[in-house]
Every structure is written in structure tokens, then in C-alpha cells.
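TICKET #2291
ISSUE: user wants both folds in one file
ATTACHMENT 1:
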Amino acid sequence: MDSRAHWDRVYTTRSAQEVSWYQPHAEQSLALIERVSAGRPSRLIDVGGGASTLVDDLLTRGPFEVTVLDLSAAALDVARQRLDAAQARRVHWLAGDVTSVALPANTYDIWHDRAVFHFLTEPAQRAAYVAQVRRAVRPGGHVIVAAFGPDGPLQCSGLPVMRYSADALHGEFGAAFELVEHKAEAHHTPGGAIQQFVYCHCIMH
């Protein structure tokens, strides 16, 4: 089963509230995003946003122009159908692989990814991801990436994952990215487990 089929199957056989990465509200992400946007109109891309409720909260909290990118069209449909029609029309929905999808150049003020980067287990995948960030984020833009921490799980949704310290995660992006801050999160899954995440906020120069 290829990756797209895997994630479509996840979102057509389980509710969005049952998957291990579900959060009623992405509080850590929201706090970081609101701080860096400082109330200014901002173009934001939520990578792997899928069925996440982040888009719901962003639409009500500030002047954001939001793109939600996910490999799974089924995941995007979950979020689109959850929003009312007027809200859904305000969002750019994009189904594709973050490492290869065509993204506009020098466009986004904020790049946000919670729980995609750690699925990129091959160096070539990670290099392609970073190249996409460098191409799509405007100079001076903010990059917020959250991945499993050093004590995080070894697998997620039946797939192998990478685990990172803050320095190791920042190191994947390189000198063009200035690490501004990092935070840890103990994520409580719907099934009652606790997963360690590390969040890195960088500015791209």
C-alpha cells in the first residue's frame, strides 16, 4: 500500500477523534502562530493539516490566509465538511505530497507542520522537504515544525518514524534557518498514551 492509500484508509476507517495525534485544539501550535503573527495578516500553510482543528481556530482568531496541505484527500474532506460553507471557501485545500507538490514561491509568512516531518525516514525525503520550505516561505518567514521527541514512539499509524532533540531537528534544516525557540509537549492520545513532541520555531533567512 502506498502512502496516499495508507492515509486515505486511515481517514475512511477511523474518525478524526480516534487517531493518536488528535487534539481538540492545537494549543501549542496556536500559541506559537499567534505570537509570530502578532495580529498581522499572514499567509500560513498547515502541512499535513488533514483533519486537524487548527484551521477552525485560525479562521476565528486572526487575519490568516490559510492553505491546508495533506497527502490524503479523505483527510481534507473531513475538515472541509466540518467547517461551514463560508469558512471552507476561505481555505486553500491542497492534496499532495509535501516533498514534491507545486507550491508558490516566496509566499508563506508561516509554515506549520505538526507530525509530518517525523514520517520522513529517508535523507532524500527530508532534503526535498527542506527545499520546499526554502522555496515556498518568504525570506524572514517563520517555520514551526513539531516532531516526536527523543522519548517519542518508534512507530505511528503502523509506520516507522524518526525522533529528534530540538538541536537535531533544527540541524535537518541548516544554517539558513535561525532557531528562535523550542518547546516540549506531552501529547495525550485519545487512547490514553503519552507521546513526547518537540516543537522548533525558526526564522528563515
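ATTACHMENT 2:
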Amino acid sequence: MKLLKLGGALAALAVLCACGAPQARQDGATRAGRIFEEALAVGDYPAACELLAPESREQLEEDEKRPCEQALAAQELPRGGGLRSVDVYGRQALLRLHDETLFLSQFDDGWRVTAAGCVREPGVDTPYRCVLKGA
């Protein structure tokens, strides 16, 4: 039953993300991040893979030498927990969850996760270290 909800949510997400208003973009990015996290939590790796940006998905498959669903299952992605904040800059978004940060980009068909499992790196030039990211 939970898997069907995620599939329906993906379709609704594509429709909602077409809006251009700042609040609609913020809501769309937040919804995509939450659906991605929910898919991971229930082991619905096909749904989670559908929410990955094309470059991130390709990089994951290339690095792991296996299909996205298998490669994603093998990642040690933290469970993000509740939403702390969301920042949207044009077609890019940063979702800060309790235990990780997600980066997303808006594509023609909706928001997609470009990096996941990101944690802040104190005192270095790159502020985040991510388990999963595109090229």
C-alpha cells in the first residue's frame, strides 16, 4: 500500500513542480525531498531512483557497476529525519534535515535529488561531504 502512495505522489509532484512562484518551488523541492526520504525508508529503491537527477543516477550506477536500485540499496545513506529548513535559489534547492542535507535541482518534469547523504564539513573549502552526488 505504501508503495502505491509513493507512485501517486510522484505523479502529483510532477504537476505541482510546474509552478514558477517562489513558494511553489519551495514546496515542490520539499515534497520531492520528503518523497525521496520516504522511499528510502521503506526500501522502495525504484521510486527513490526515479527522483535522482540523471547525472547523479548515472554517476551512482557507474561508481557501483550495477543498476540504480541495487546501487542505491548498497549506499549507507543516513535517514534525514524531519525538515529543519529549505532554501531555493532559482532552480536549485538545499533541504536541511535533522541528520543530513539534500541538494535538488528543478528539471522540466519536476525536482530531482542531485546529492544525498550530505553532512557539513567544518573548516574545509567544500562545505558538504555527500555519499551520493552527480559528476
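RESOLUTION: both attachments delivered.
EXTRA DETAIL ON ATTACHMENT 2: The chain is about 45% helix and 25% strand.
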